[in-house]
Amino acid sequence: MLGPESPAIPLGPLHRAGQPCLVCHDGAEATELTVAGTIYERADSTKPVPDVLVHLVDARGTAYVTATNCAGNFFVRPGDFSPEYPMRVTIERDGFRQEMESPVNGEGSCAVCHTTKPGPRSAGRVFLLSVAANLEDRCP
C-alpha cells in the first residue's frame, strides 16, 4: 500500500519517515503502535528533527511524552499510552514550541492528515520551527 522500502534504510524505527505509520503498525503486519509520526525542521523542509519532545494529552486528561529519533520519527506502543480521542499535541525542543491548533480526532498516524504539501485536506508536514533559527545537529 505504501510502496517499496528504501534499500538504504533498514526496517526499524528510522524507516519510512513522513509516511502514515499505522497503515502497517496495526499489530497484524508490524508491531502495533497507537500514535506515530515524523517531525521536520520547517514546514518546507525535508530535514527531520531528533530529540523533539512530543506531548500527548487525551480526552481523559492522561498525558504521555515521547521523543523523536534521528529520522524525526516518534512512536507510542499500546502498553505505554492508548489515547482516548480527541487528543491534544504539543512539540518542543531547545525553547521552540508548537501546539497543534486543533485536536486529533481519532487517527494516531500523523501523516494521514499531515501530508508533504499543505492544501485543503492537509496542514502540511509537522514542523518545529516557524522562525529562522539553527538547531544543533544531534545525529551522526
TrEMBL record:
Question: Does the record's keyword annotation contain Protease?
Answer: yes
Q: Which domain of life is it from?
A: Bacteria
The name under which this protein is listed is Carboxypeptidase regulatory-like domain-containing protein
InterPro entries (alphabetical): CarboxyPept-like_regulatory (IPR008969)
Keywords per UniProt? Carboxypeptidase, Hydrolase, Protease
The molecular function GO annotations come to: carboxypeptidase activity
